[in-house]
Write a structure and sequence with these properties.
Largest sheet: none
Helix content: over 70%
Shape: globular
Number of strands: 0
Radius of gyration: 17 Å
Distance between the termini: 18 Å
Order of helices and strands: HHHHHHH
């Protein structure tokens, strides 16, 4: 479980890495919330930029935000952190494939090819790993729900059994869970993410 005691003074490195980790979570939440808003109401910048271009930018930003959390998460069990990083590298390979197949139009592939949403599964796995880890450590139950719903949502979309309206509402629900999760996580004292480092040396 997560440690709430301050076992040792935090170093500058501890503080910076925890802040970067939480910034990644907050940015991922904002990006998914913006995508959910767009899916319901249309492009945020309608008339200034195409929906596909804006969605592609949001997807790229989401990869960056999740990557920030992946590389700055405090996981002292090395095999877990290595697994998480390898999953993120796989997600980057999937992103490259999306980019090649869509000739730069990543979102176009996601909405026009049945396999498109499946290529987001590694990224969803990374974000789900992070939310599940926090759920386990700090009893943030919505973290478990996010970890289960994200891949399930992508699988259902890939199967073509969800209407566009249902897909929009599904994304809104996931975004709402992420907002709750982020508000509960990012304002925790910084030392909660550090714990007792001596136990792992």
């Amino acid at each position: 479980m997560g440690e709430r005691e301050l076992y040792q003074p935090l170093t500058q490195h501890d503080k910076v890495t925890v802040v970067l980790y939480r910034v990644g979570i907050a940015l991922a939440t904002l990006i998914i919330a913006a995508a959910a808003y767009m899916s319901v109401t249309g492009p945020l910048l309608q008339g200034l930029v195409s929906a596909n271009s804006l969605a592609t930018v949001l997807i790229l930003a989401l990869y960056g935000a999740v990557g920030l959390s992946v590389f700055f998460i405090h996981l002292y069990v090395n095999k877990f952190h290595r697994t998480l990083k390898n999953l993120y590298y796989l997600s980057i390979a999937a992103l490259a494939l999306l980019f090649i197949l869509g000739k730069g139009d990543i979102f176009g592939v996601l909405i026009s090819r049945a396999y498109g949403p499946l290529l987001l599964l590694p990224l969803a796995g990374c974000l789900g790993f992070i939310t599940a880890k926090e759920a386990f450590c700090f009893r943030l139950t919505e973290g478990y729900l996010i970890a289960l719903l994200l891949p399930l949502y992508l699988l259902v979309i890939a199967l073509g059994t969800m209407t566009a309206r249902s897909a929009s509402y599904g994304l809104v629900f996931i975004a709402a869970l992420l907002v709750i999760f982020s508000l509960r996580k990012v304002f925790m004292p910084l030392h909660y993410d550090i714990g007792d480092k001596s136990a792992y040396t």
